[in-house]
Write a structure and sequence with these properties.
Strand 9 (155-160) and strand 10 form a beta hairpin. The protein is 32% helix and 34% strand. It folds into two domains: 4-126, Response regulator (Rossmann fold); 129-232, LytTr DNA-binding domain (OB fold (Dihydrolipoamide Acetyltransferase, E2P)), CATH 2.40.50.1020. The chain has helices at residues 13-23, 38-48, 64-71, 89-94, 107-126, 171-178, 221-232; strands at 4-9, 29-35, 52-55, 78-83, 99-102, 129-134, 137-142, 148-152, 155-160, 163-167, 182-186, 189-192, 196-201, 207-211, 216-219.
């Protein structure tokens, strides 16, 4: 199975450690970070692009449910809520959570959650296609065919080689579906990282990417550090 990247968000160190220990039984899962609250989590989600999020509800500052409202459900990875409180189950599943675990965690209940996770990941990764309307019907576009995506009003313009497809999807929704081979480089652009040939920085500190086909894309200052890190890690 393709490695699954997990982020743990809980304000209690013991709770974070407990989830880590339970995950040791699943070598397919790599913990890419731990966060103490929703604000730290928002930064980690943008930088790490995890597949899975273990998320507490009640935390100081930005809590778990508020984090989802801020980012939007469509931009979130699979979520497993881990909380000491039963009363958040309904809003959790309204947020399309994979599961809802109540502390203290039992190994048997955790195993059931992980089985559910693996089934969901298998189905998600075999069905990672984007439906594109055409004059003759619908084209199912594989993620591997996509080179970059640009925002165009309330639509997105998907570049697949020399062909462009206009779809009614937000960039946040497309970014969440495309996986770590892609990165949001600007509010209005997503690019496939293995197609980046050169990274340039001018005297004013502006960063641009040059793709293999010669396309030049500007990287926003806010995203420049994350994009460089992602490229260096390839």
């Amino acid at each position: 199975m393709t490695p699954i990247r997990a982020l743990i968000v809980d304000d209690e160190p013991l709770a974070r450690r407990g989830i880590r220990q339970l995950l040791e039984a699943y070598p397919a899962v790599t913990v890419v970070g731990e966060c103490r609250d929703g604000r730290e989590a928002a930064r980690a989600l943008a930088a790490e692009r995890p597949d899975l999020l273990f998320l507490d509800v009640e935390m100081p500052g930005l809590d778990g449910l508020a984090l989802i409202r801020v980012r939007g459900t469509e931009a979130m990875p699979l979520i497993v809520f881990v909380t000491a409180h039963q009363q958040y189950a309904v809003p959790a599943f309204e947020a399309q959570a994979l599961d809802y675990l109540v502390k203290p965690l039992s190994a048997a209940r955790f195993r059931a959650t992980m089985q559910r996770l693996f089934e969901r990941m298998r189905s998600r990764r075999t069905a990672e296609r984007i439906a594109v309307p055409t004059a003759d019907g619908t084209l199912l576009l594989d993620a591997g065919e996509i080179t970059r995506i640009e925002a165009e009003g309330d639509h997105a313009l998907i570049h697949a080689g020399r062909v462009r497809h206009r779809v009614r999807h937000s960039l946040a929704a497309l970014e969440a579906r495309l996986g770590r081979e892609f990165a949001r480089v600007h509010r209005s652009a997503i690019v496939r990282l293995d197609l980046v040939r050169e990274v340039r920085t001018d005297g004013a500190g502006e960063t641009t990417l040059v793709l293999r086909d010669g396309t030049v894309l500007r990287v926003s200052r806010r995203r420049a550090g994350t994009v460089r890190t992602r490229l260096a890690g390839r």
